[in-house]
Amino acid sequence: MRRDPRLTIITEAIERLIPGATPAFLSVEVTETLPGTGERRNTWTGRPDAVAEQLSPLAQADKAKRARSIEGEISALMQAGVELTSAPWYPARPGDLVHVHYDQAGDWPAFGETYLVGDASEPGDSVPRLMSLTLLAHTVPATVDEAEVAGMTGCFAAEAADCPLYELWFEAGPQRLTIVRDGQVVHDGPARGRGQAATRILFEAERHAATMREVQRFLERGEPDLALARLTSGQPLPACGNPGPMPEHADCARPRGHRPPCSPDADYVVPPHECPALPEQLHAVVTVGSKVKGVHFAGLHGDRGAAVDQAQSFVAYSEEHNAQYVKPAAGMPGEMVLELPQENELRATGVQLAVVVPLQVLPDPRAEDEWAAEGMATALGPEDYADDYRDVDE
Question: For residue 160, what is the DSSP state?
Answer without folding.
Answer: E
